[in-house]
Amino acid sequence: MDKVRLGRTNIVVNKNGFGALPIQRVSQEVASQIMRKVYENGIDFIDTARGYTDSEEKIGQTFSPEERGNLYIATKTGARDAETFWLHLDQSLKNMKTDYVDIYQFHNPPFVPKPGGEDGLYEAILEAKRQGKVKFIGITNHKLHLAKEAVLSGLYDTLQFPFSYLASEQDVEIVRLCEIHDVGFIAMKGLSGGLISDSALAYAYLNEFKNVLPIWGIQRESELDEFISYQGQPPILTDERREKIEAEKVQLAGNFCRACGYCLPCPAKIDIPQAARISLLLRRAVVAHFLTEEAQERMMRVVDCSHCGHCVTNCPYGLDVPALLKENYEDYLTFL
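Above: the chain's sequence. Below: its structure in token form.
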């Protein structure tokens, strides 16, 4: 199976990483069943976050202390001050029944924490590292300029950033920059929030980048089986697959929702990540799934949009979210 080295951490892991965000949506029994299979098939990197409701607890309930020693676990804090940082870290350690985190990441901050900041975050994470509670320091982000600033600062061992075959050349440059500066690159959104349905194509593309560790968000055992099957025979990026990627880029480039979820919660209770992408989803998945009575009821909430600005302010991609919602809603009506 392919391995990847996470920059100067010298952590070497299976090139399939497990993204634990989706397991918050399933029971402990199902989550443990999936993660047992993850472990038994040599997938040894797990990424979660304090903000993923009970994801950390499910990890803690699944693995024995001995098994935990064979895993690399990364989690995240959304803290914006030192006091909250310590509360988050201590809760994460308790949840996962461990006394250390391999990579502790600042979770999509609107700035790059640095020494001397009034927030005290970087000093706090350095102290946590001195105490042995944190092995390496990471940061996650969705904004190119902050990702680049973090890499060039020399303060971070890893960067987690959205990366898939829909990536722009600027995104690819971030990957190359990490390689130059020996910063580990963890790729989130390898399936672009569900818009990419061909997992073999997604895998083949990311496998071209030797310093990239994809973390696949999995909540069904059948999804896990797909990625496990690629370990023995990794899909190759053939000319045919390259042509498909180029066609997909033309269709999806630019003004589309990546389903990062930072627009939520919506005061009007609109499921923005789905409603803003429904036109694409209707043409790339089983249509009936999006036309059930329950699905229609959720889509109809778009008319309740009050243009409060919350989604626009919080969108890391600068999208005109209300306009996207209106456009997708009007298209959705043509399917009813």
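The chain has 15 helices and ten strands.
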